[in-house]
Amino acid sequence: MSNDEWRVYELISRHFLATISKDAVGSETKVTVALGGETFTAKGLIIEEMNWLEVFHYEKWSDTDLPPIQKGEEFTPDLKMVDGKTSAPNLLTEADLIAKMDATGIGTDATIHEHIKTVIERSYAVKQSQSFIPTSVGVSLVEAYEHVGIELYKPYLRAQMENDMKLIGQGTKSKDVVLRDCI
Whose CB among 22, 36, 73, 150 lies 3.0–4.6 Å from 51's, allowing a Cys bridge? Predict the structure, then answer.
């Protein structure tokens, strides 16, 4: 077998063996700390029995370990002030955007790509490599809506409108009721 063929074989074999292995056992620890009038939360996972995780090493349950702690336990934190800056979140890829649209109920499999095409045609964003970059037109439009207190840029509005159209088409909601609700 070639190297790539072996890797595919190993992945499939390990996946199969993991499906017939015992369940992994773990417990999650959630720590909430009140400090200086602020509340901080951390989560960690203790894996008690690896079982199928030993077989299928591609999967990890957690990258965060917390020391054992009991409810109500008090401790003195080791605090350090570090200079730094926040960074902007990663730009959305087409897959990310489609997943977000699907999660908020915007579009159907047949219309999602048309929505994205319209956003690009209207110059609200440009697609560069695999990511969408908002243009000054898109940013200005959202900022203008925010400034006047109109939420026309919120995804739930599009999802609500599409749901209302579906209900009109099914005959369970009238056009007049939808118009009245919008006004």
Answer: 22
Query: Rounded to the nearest 10 degrees, what angle do helices 155-170 and 175-182 cross at?
Result: 160
pTM tops 0.70, yes or no? no
Residue spans per domain, the chain:
3-55, 94-182
Question: CB-based burial of residue 132 (10 Å sphere; 0-12 exposed, 13-18 middle, 19+ buried)?
Answer: buried
Q: Which CATH number fits domain 94-182: 3.40.50.720, 3.60.10.10, 1.10.460.10, 1.10.579.10?
A: 1.10.460.10
